[in-house]
Predict the structure.
Amino acid sequence: MKIRKTGRQAEKVELMMTPMIDIVFQLLIFFIMTFKIVAPEGDFNVKMPLAAPSESATDVSQLPPLKVRLTAAAGGRIAGVYLGQSKMASFGELRERILEVVGRDTGPGSVAAETEVELDCDYNLDFQYVIDAVTAVSGEVTPEGQIVKLVEKIRFAPPRKP
């Protein structure tokens, strides 16, 4: 309430709250009713049919998983990284070999999307090496900041007891 002083007598100005509350509720109802939830943009796993069937192409879903073996030395340090029967010198070499197998095409229905990697780790291996292996097979971040995905399906073999 304000009291307005003019040359005549002081007069009270009443604020009418009921119409203000009505307008606020009408605006609230309007915004609630017109609000649309938008699905986040991202990768859509749409499998498109092939242009022409190929006789020499193998069915990717029938391929066995790539087996990555991590062996531990004393104290939980990494002793060896193996892809199948081949020993890798580092996790970078493992990433390069996975890239050779799955290729650069990473869209839905590609070899990278269908390939599965099985990690077989020693029981006493430090967790950081397991994370390094997951990072090596799942992808990398380029110096430009782009994410390059390699393999999305990763599973773990039952741990080996010492």
Observations:
- Residues 10-34 form one domain.
- The helical segments are 17-34, 91-102, 111-114, 127-138.
- The beta strands are 2-4, 11-13, 66-72, 78-83, 86-88, 116-121, 139-141, 147-149, 153-156.
